[in-house]
Amino acid sequence: MGRNLPATLLWLACLHVVGGAPSAWADEVTEAISAIRKLGGSVRSVGKEWEVDFHLRGRRLTDKDLAHVAILKDVAWLNVSRTRITSGGLVHLKRLEKLRWLHLEMTGIGDKGMEHVAGLPRLEYLNLYATKVTDKSLEKLASCKTLKRLFVWRTGVTDAGVARLRKRRAGIRIVKGLDLSKLASVFPTEVEKPKSRVPLKWVSVSSRDEAPLRSENGINCEILFENKSKRPVKLFWISYGKGELKFYARLAPGAIRKQNSYSKNAWLVTDDDDQPLGYFVVKPDDSRAVIPGSAP
Amino acid sequence: MSLTRSLVEDPYGFLRRTGVILLTASIFLGVVSRPASAADADPAEQRHWSYRPIVRPEVPPAAGGAWARNAVDLFVHRRLVREGIVPSPVAGRETLIRRVTLDLIGLPPTPREVMAFIKDKRPGAYQRVVDRLLASPHYGERWARPWLDVAHYADSDGYLTDQLRPVAWRFRHWVVEALNGDMPFDRFTIEQLAGDLLPEATIQQKIATGFLRQTLSNREGGADVEEFRVMQVKDRVATVGTVWLGSTVGCSACHDHKFDPITQREFYELYAFFNSADEVNIDAPLPGELGPYRDKRPEYDRRRRELIAPRSVEIEKLQRRWEQRLLEANANPGQDYRWDRRWEILGLIWRQGLGEGQLEGQEIVKLVPARRSQWQREQLFEYFLRFGADIDSKRFSELGLSQIKSGIDALNRELPRLSRAATVRETQNPRKSFFLNRGVYNDRGPVVRPDTPGFLPPIGKPLRRNRLALARWLVSRDNPLTARVIVNRAWQEFFGRGLVMTSEDFGIQGERPSHPDLLDWLAARFMDRGWSTKWLHRQIVCSAVYRQSSHVRPELRDRDPDNRLLARQSSLRLTAEAIRDSALAASGLLSRSLGGPSVRPPQSASTVMGGFGKSGWKVSERDGRYRRALYIFIKRATPFPQLATFDAPNARDSCTHRERSNTPLQALTLLNDPLFFEASRALAQRAVREIDGGTDKRIDHVFRICTARLPGDLERRELADSHRRLVAVLRRDPGAVAKLVPEKIEGLDPVEVGAWTGVCSVVLNLHEFITRD
Amino acid sequence: MTAEELLAIQGRRRFLRDGTCGIGTVALSGLLAEDGLVAGVTGESDTFLPREPHHAATARNVIFLNMSGGPSQLDLFDPKPRLQQLHRKPVPASFLAGLNDPVIKAGATVMATPRTFSRYGECGMEFSDRLPHLAGHADDLCMLRGMVTDTANHHPGQLLLNCGTPMFGHPSMGAWVSYGLGSESRNMPAFVVLTSYSKPASLVGPSLWTNGFLSSSYRGVAFRSKGEPILHLENPAGVSEMFQRVRVDTVRRLNALRLKQTRDHEISSRIASYELAYRMQAEAPDLLDFSDESAATLEMYGLNDETTRWYGTNCLLARRMIERGVRFVQLFHSDWDHHLDLDKLLKVDCRMTDRPAAALLTDLKQRGLLDDTLVVWGGEFGRTPMNEVRRGNSPGHQGRDHHPFGFTMLMAGGGVRGGQVVGGTDELGYHAVEDRVHIHDLQATILHCLGLDHTRLTYRHQGRDFRLTDVGGNVVEKVLA
User: How far is the C-alpha of C181 from the C-alpha of C90, rounded, in Å?
Assistant: First the structure.
């Protein structure tokens, strides 16, 4: 009966704002809910089951307090992460036969009492992140037939332990976290795949007049300019239409620059005094434009 | 179409609420064409309500006994009678004086003012309070704020560089004075939009055009200066549209308006009025500045001439070469990026750091030298001395220009300064206005000429189609929008909501007025009474509607949750500024001096570091720390957190309606912000010093100061209880007392002051304190 | 002071602080009733009661990575080889037939993407090289390529995405969720907003996290974007815990008396915000103190890199808030409005956000929290397949305009089946043609994952039942695990 009361009513009941005389069993449940809420926990009813949270405001929760949760029995979801419980509290979980989702992360639990967890007949999700569990717990959990997801990052669990469990129970997704020492390879600061680039032809000139009059339209592509000469050079795009020179960059000796461009565009290279040295005409592909070392 | 029609005929907006969801959805899907074009029968009747001419409605006959006090009430009452609702009783005198004082001057009434009002049993007591408040110089300070919100006033440029605008405050001061002098709103409009174009324009009239200088400026390199100039002009058009026309014309910069009958072409016709206005700063001496300046000026001129005289011809030649090179770069962009950049910089950083007009330098260079004013010549020459060496560095040093520069710098340091002000003026280098395709600044379509939108009455045949003509048109008797929009925003300040809830949008998408006749009556009378803002405010605050109690009536909760029928007043959380000002006023810390440059009260170190750098926020001296919030320096990129927490708008766009949020961050501010705690301490000292004797008497005094009323028995008991507990807490903790009351005060027990600091802070944290009921 | 008094004060202090007496915001009505203060005042106090969801939830929390301004799907998520072929050519007329939107005009030319697309993960989901880190989570992500919205203007579009209607004044998604599930038992607000930007003329404002016509307790609490996220967490000098508790208690009791007098429900919200503020004083320093995070974690979020630090901090805060019971965290990043210089500016915003967002997924995953938490990535609309030329034709300066007819969003986490692409656009990327998902469908799906039926989550206002999804919305079953 009590279980089917709307949560609001139960809630009011536990504040003693409304009275009433439900059955003794309902009394017991009502009292348990009241106790959980006094501990800062929250209880929601979902269909015929309960969801219980302590991680929000109930982090002073200790082992014996879990007895209140055990009274509710039909708990499907329990979050006691970041609370003060230890292995000793796990014994209270064994009555929760409908429990599917269990957050134990960041608590003081270890391997002791894990058999109570492993014995839960419907457990699908188990979070043991940042606890003291080791491979011993994993051995016990192997008997949990329903388990699908297991989180053991920052615990005493070893790769070998995970491998053994995987062998016995292939259906479990086990997350042991990333090896953070290898982070650099997982998160490279700049992922750039080497591209195959066609070379552009360097045409050496000594005046603007020798270079193309203007750029033509083409398709988008990328040029990699490389200054292999021994002095700085300047890079000008020859515009469409009037063929004006638009300054883009100054490349130090040895510098490279990636430049977005279009095929049939023309790029003029000069020295620091704007004296033309040569030009490139872009091909319809990603390309490489090398300013040669022998440039005058 | 029937849906559209019902929308037009639905005076109260319920249908709109329910139907509009479908309607807007279908508009988005292109199913329904623009509803406003549904004109098929009588065009005047079919027109959207706010575009119809304002015809003064008949005042409903007096009925329902003595409740009504003026015409406003008769309109509201007629509606209430129809709904079968009786108005709320008049609010108690304490509530009333607090309400009207906060609404008219933005400060709480003093206990003496409260007592005087309570004791004044003669007829007209309330009117006398209203008269006193309307005559108070703080009235202008209170009412400047919403106007500065719509103008989006600030003391910095915005964007990344966010340079300061040290003379921006001159416009703020102009607004305060205009409001205090009850400048007729039509003149108020004309001076702000076109003061410079008035015949024999005074400096004050030019300062008024500072309204148009509240656009953001980008002084960062790499941007096309023309792009940002166009953006500023667009912002001016959008702001004028919002502020006077209650229309979202800004949408039309890129395409025809989706809902309202304004086309993209019409947007650029409005744009053309403003496209010829250039940003310039002018000398606007403050009292006492002109005399010393005039005394020194002849001597300055002589010595300056002497400095240049020996080589003036050659110098001028070189400067012309430099100017020519800049002009070439402007005419042929892309030819030489270095000179492109120099041209750009001339526009961006002209008299950098002084809040001067952007692009002013470029405009001077474009001007033939003969047409340049003396000021322009001097400033350009000084700029040339700083940045012109690139034209020919050899020649530059031969002519000794660096020495001349330091000579002039020294002279400038000696010359007494004249304060300046940010204004606009008609450009000296006329430019055409274009239809900009999709709003893109350099994608020019056909040339457009200044004109007003076709859905409003025509501008007629003014001598010149310039800003002045536009401003006059905005406040002409035929313009159906301006008076309605202005009256509605005033109403919004007094009731929390306008008669049109969407005070920023009187267009097709906006809400319809709850009391259309009342809105039109107020608008018509407002104009008839010479656009007197004080008349309008008096009319509203003297009505019985305004004076009602704000207590929520449970029986109306479902029928009228938003209090649209006005069967009561509304409790409104105070604005950010009023909360700060009230705490300062209650504590006695408030500095009531008027006007002047912006002040910098202390703020958290992290805010200062983030927005200003280590030494960028020089905290004002004593008086400046306790000025009214109106005067706090507004840096666009780094708003003052205390005000931002209480919903002060950012100064990016025009804000016609502030939010009134309620967050835990506000609680943290009132509890822990050093300013509010300091106010508690000052109030405590005041209470302990001013009231000899019992706890209860002191509590009553503090409560009266903060809420205008006396506490009830339960309230008094709670406060006395907290006092007792705080004394107990502090007796055991002398260390805390020393921190709590850092300065010993002769004859006062620090524990008492500390405990009263706590009690006073409780009262300053009450919902009632930050609310006007 | 007698021992009894001291105990009373301490009791009170713990009362809300530590929950030993078990009452927080949730118990406000009870608390007030207990004090004999609000007998007879009902209604608003129900605000804080926990509510039953409509069905079992697959997610308890939402982190919405709101990418304001309209990220370009064609340069990030939706490769279209046809664009390369039609580059600089006019849009084929067939795509524009029947369109009557003033924002989208014919005559523009097609723009190929300058980016390279590759397949990632076991599922082979395609991403461009601009989001290499997020792409690493391909197998966790559900990519919705058939998103559509109603409007091509920023603010209406953002309002639609956040509040379910392009109009002002309606509650935002976070407010609806807090309303739907109650904001019980928390030391932190149920709905928190964090912002970051690459351009200071930010497109983001409080209308996007408003409570609308719901109680103002449901409004999103915006932390400061620079400097300390929350100011004034510390008591003023000399104010001890006991002193503070007396202050806060007295404020509450007096406000409650006032509530009884005036029946102004805003006062109950004010009372709640004071209680929450008081608890935040205890909880927030722990939230904001990253010293318990490992160096590797900080590095993963990019906190040691100037480019990623801002967004990385926000992402890390989001995870820490989820752990502490914040139900809805919204991270606004603005802006992605790349009308010009798209390739360059896209790179800026991608570099600011890609790595932190991916780190957030990784971190949630390894802590087992991704199974409880729904993560959404996306903006108010996408961008056109056509080129928008705003600054001459010089190379690399092109951008794209706003595009509502087909764009991409990402979902991951609680209840979402990762490693799949749902929906698609035509060969030009112009129209969503397959499994179109309207913004209202997305909202219905998010609510569904939280255990809420979007048609039943309603609020009566001015005589009408309003809901987040207006009159639309279908749960996108394909997305669900």
Answer: 51
On whether both B319 and B380 belong to a single domain, the answer is yes
Q: Is A129 on the interface with C (CB under 8 A)?
A: yes
B352 in the same domain as B233 = no
Average pLDDT of the residues of chain C: 83
- Give which of B562, B603, B671 to mutate to test C binding, by max C Cβ within 10 Å: B671
Residue A290: the pLDDT is: 93
Does residue B524 share a domain with residue B503?
yes
Chain C touching partners, 3 or more CB pairs below 8 A: A, B
Nearest residue of C to residue A6, measured between CA atoms = C52
Are C425 and C387 in contact, with CB atoms under 8 Å apart? Answer: no
Query: Within chain A, which residue ranges are assigned CATH 3.80.10.10?
Result: 39-186
> Rounded to whole angstroms, how far apart are CA atoms B511 and B522?
18
User: For residue C287, is it within any domain?
Assistant: no
More confident residue, B259 or B8: B259
Which H or E run includes B181?
A: none
- Domain ranges, residue C381: 56-238+292-479
Position C46 in a domain: no
- CA-to-CA distance for B710 and B214, rounded, in angstroms? 44
- Confidence tier at C109 by pLDDT (50, 70, 90): confident
CATH superfamily of A39-186: Ribonuclease Inhibitor (3.80.10.10)
Amino acid occupying residue B691: I
Assigned domain for B584 exists: no
A7 confidence band (pLDDT: 50, 70, 90):
very low
Residue A8: band (very low, low, confident or very high) from pLDDT cuts 50, 70, 90: very low
pLDDT tens digits along B387-436 = 999 899 899 999 999 999 999 999 999 999 999 999 999 999 999 999 99
Q: How many CB atoms lie within 10 A of CB B192?
A: 24
* C454 burial type by CB count under 10 A (0-12 exposed, 13-18 middle, 19+ buried): buried
Rounded to a whole number of angstroms, the distance between the first and last alpha carbons of chain B is 44
Which residues contact residue A24 at a Cβ distance below 8 angstroms, ignoring those fewer than 6 apart?
Answer: none
**Domain over A198-291 is classified CATH 2.60.40.780:** yes
| B359 lies in the same domain as B237 | no
Establish if A188 touches chain C: CB-CB under 8 angstroms: yes
Question: Hey, which chains touch A, using 3+ CB pairs under 8 Å?
Answer: B, C
Tens of pLDDT, residues C318-369? 999 998 888 999 999 988 998 878 988 999 999 999 999 999 999 999 899 9
**Per DSSP, what are the bridge partners of residue A257?**
A225
- B27 has a pLDDT exceeding 60: no
Question: Residue C438: inside a domain, yes or no?
Answer: yes
- C360 burial (CB, 10 Å; 0-12 / 13-18 / 19+) is buried
d(CA B588, CA B246): 40
Task: Kindly state whether residue B633 falls inside one of the protein's structural domains.
Answer: no
Average of per-residue pLDDT across B503-512: 90
**Residue B602 lies inside a defined structural domain of this protein:** no
Number of residues assigned to chain A: 296
Claim to verify: residue B291 and residue B408 sit in the same structural domain = yes
In this structure, chain C runs to a length of 481
- Please state the domain count of chain C: 1
Residues B470, B455: one domain?
yes
Measure CA of the first residue to CA of the last residue in chain A; give whole Å: 96
Instruction: Tell me how many domains chain B contains.
Output: 6
**Minimal Cα–Cα distance from A209 to chain C, Å?**
21
Q: For residue C117, what is the nearest residue in chain A, using CA coordinates?
A: A193
Containing structural domain, residue B122: 90-135
Flag whether B450 is in a domain: yes
In the predicted model, is pLDDT for residue C8 greater than 70? no
Q: Do A39 and C22 touch (CB under 8 A)?
A: yes
Contacts with B355 (C-beta within 8 Å, 6 or more apart), sequence order? B163, B164, B165, B166, B167, B168, B281, B422
Q: Do C9 and B719 touch (CB under 8 A)?
A: no
